Amino acid sequence: MSEFLRQIRRQLESGFPLGWVQGEVSGLSRAGSGHLYFSLKDSDAQLRCTMWRNRAQLLPFQLREGMQVEVRAQLTVYEARGDLQLSVEHIRPAGQGNLFEAFMRLKSRLEAEGLFASELKRPLPRLPRCIGIISSPDAAALQDVLASLQRRASGLQLVLYPTRVQGEGAAAQIAEAIASANARRAEDACEALLLCRGGGSLEDLWAFNEEVVVRALRASALPVICGVGHETDTTLADFAADARAATPTAAAELISAGLFALRGQLPLIERQLRDSALRALARRHQQLDLLERRLVHPRQRMAALQAHLEQLGLRLQHATTRALSTARQNTQQLQARWLRSPPNLSARRQQLDSLHTRLEQALQRQQQVRRHSLQQLATALELLNPGAVLERGYAIVRDAQGHIVRDATMLKRGDTIDIALARGQVGAQVTDSQS
């Protein structure tokens, strides 16, 4: 018997290849293993159907009792009971066959126009600062996208362009949202768009197969990632967009891939910055050592200041001479103008007296400023004079070779030393030394 049934099964499967069958769902049950069991019937007949778990879990909608569906199935025999049944691979609501034909016709026409050409695809920004999201504010897919972006690229700015994603008029709203995002790109600073919607039947996703949406996607100046449906769903928007993601969450991961990867590089960048700072600090230490070796002796510094002071004195003298010469010339010019002026000598005399007074005041102020500067330089020079230090009671001690003694350990008992005071010098002999 089993061999006979196997021959029948082989004959049926070869004689009735995989095809579409329409009917009403009846006696629906779901086993604990995840397999679906139901009957497909019409007014005159019915046939048992089985859909295995690996296929059933991919259904984009909830199969219900009494639903009119079309199943893509293989006619076979269940040998254990000798039942004739359909082994179902895919289910779609009845009437989607016409939608699929319309989908294929529109796809062929738009593809012939070159709207899906790969050379039209624009590159996505690697490190975007702001992206736009075209979706329904109430969609669960939007929340998935926001959660993914918050987890992977929390600093990314988001702009939502709300639209309907299903039903009558949804296609026109989607196209309008794409156009609005492009019109506001300078104001919103978006660098790319995410077109998002969760999974559903072909009818549910039909808005994304409308020609107006396809043309809006191709007219967009901003690159668009299409994340519509689940892994098995495909729309014309997927072909027209610059990149296609299997799910809305995958679209969020695709646009944030560069930022996510960069965040993983932050520890390496931190180590590189720390190493760079340490190298810079070492260079500064070397420069400090070099400057310390180049430090000028106070005697040389005093000589340089003395020369600078003399130079300033000469410049002050020359400046005063030039100012007096200029004042005399101005006075002579004024006197000449006064001689050529009208008979109103009183007014000119008053003007001349005023100018003379201002000239004297200016010269006095300039001399005061120069004198003050000269006094400051003399004070600075005096502060650097070693004799001033000696006047305060300090002394300079030299050994027998004339070297300045800075440490008591340089001397031992019996050494002769020379002590320079503010006035005069004293010779002495070391009787004791302590460090």
Automatic annotation (TrEMBL):
Domain OB-fold nucleic acid binding: from-to ranges? 2-92
Q: Which reaction does it catalyse?
A: Exonucleolytic cleavage in either 5'- to 3'- or 3'- to 5'-direction to yield nucleoside 5'-phosphates
Bilayer-crossing residues are none
- Domain Exonuclease VII large subunit C-terminal: residue ranges: 115-428
State the top-level EC class.
Answer: hydrolase
One Gene Ontology term of the molecular function aspect: exodeoxyribonuclease VII activity
Q: Determine the domain of life of the protein's source.
A: Bacteria
One Pfam family matching this protein: Exonuc_VII_L
Task: Write down the EC number.
Answer: 3.1.11.6
Q: Which InterPro entries match?
A: Exonuc_VII_L, Exonuc_VII_lsu_C, OB-fold_nuc-bd_dom
**Annotated localization:** Cytoplasm
Q: Which UniProt keywords apply?
A: Cytoplasm, Exonuclease, Hydrolase, Nuclease
Report the main location listed first in the record: cytoplasm
Instruction: Summarize subunit and interaction data from the UniProt record for this chain.
Output: Heterooligomer composed of large and small subunits.
Q: Which NCBIfam families match?
A: xseA
Q: Which family does it belong to?
A: Belongs to the XseA family.
What is this protein's function? Answer: Bidirectionally degrades single-stranded DNA into large acid-insoluble oligonucleotides, which are then degraded further into small acid-soluble oligonucleotides.
Under HAMAP family, the record lists: Exonuc_7_L
Protein's recorded name:
Exodeoxyribonuclease 7 large subunit
